[in-house]
Amino acid sequence: MTIKRWLVVTSLALCATAAHAAWPEGPVTWVVPYPAGGGTDVIARTVASSLEKKLGQTIVIENKPGGGTAIGASAISRAKPDGYMVGTADSGTLAFNPSLYKQLTYDPSKFTYIGGLARFPLVLAVPANSPYKTVNELIEAAKKTPGKLSASSAGAGSPHHLALERFKQLTKTDIVHVPYKGAAPALQDLIGGQVDLMFGDLGSSLPNIKAGKVRVLAVTVPERLPLLPDVPTMAQEGVGDFVAYAWQGLVGPAGMPEDVVKKLDKDLKDTLESDEVRKKVEGLGVEIMPMSGPDFKAYSDKEREDWAKVIKAGNITLQ
């Protein structure tokens, strides 16, 4: 081989090596479509702090709240598909918004689905001094006096609101929805007795449950919760088809390299299933939800289909 040819071959080999350098070579940005300090942000930071050890690079959390998660989702969808920007997409982003809004600035089908993250169990709670001790007593009261009972939520289109709508449709009851600007004020008015019930997330409700300020009638996931072992599920209370909880996973822009997705998928699953992360997440009243990318997409598609029926039946629309 001549020196000239050797130089050409060597140059091409070096270029090929550079083009296929192992990912990641620098920091990875993780977009969170909510403000810092909230449940979604805490989960992202908890997982990222362990995940970055596997990646060997820093993960930078970038909060992009607003628009019912659309601002963050749009930023992810428009990112360069090189694996250096990914982000949290939740039940609102992927399942609710397509039916709630007439137009979206992103397309749920165009994301690269990387894997599941966590689910946020909901609880059906009433004030501590409520006369209702069981779900059946609550349903009977709602049917006896339609429109008299009221339920607070974190806002129109929130998981709390849509859980209420699914409950009303399954039980054929008329309960007035009272939306608030966030879960905290909705919970405070429940404690104060301004409303009769609330489907609240376990994480934010737990301190008040432990303090005896609210009474939990049922949990909205298929199995009893370790943190509330004495509280029945909706199925055990006779509302058999009722399941409702918030959930989230990790997505990226369409067209991410297959090897990058596979690595992220595996490292994310391993991170979630580690004892350290599992204990931290479950301590927040949240459950880990490890899924492969394809499984998470299939799950999201099915949830979008199911909740579209609830939203349509409830005639719920947001601008």
From TrEMBL:
<keyword id="KW-0732">Signal</keyword>
<dbReference type="InterPro" id="IPR042100">
    <property type="entry name" value="Bug_dom1"/>
</dbReference>
<comment type="similarity">
    <text>Belongs to the UPF0065 (bug) family.</text>
</comment>
<feature type="signal peptide">
    <location>
        <begin position="1"/>
        <end position="21"/>
    </location>
</feature>
<protein>
    <submittedName>
        <fullName>ABC transporter substrate-binding protein</fullName>
    </submittedName>
</protein>
<dbReference type="InterPro" id="IPR005064">
    <property type="entry name" value="BUG"/>
</dbReference>
<dbReference type="Pfam" id="PF03401">
    <property type="entry name" value="TctC"/>
</dbReference>
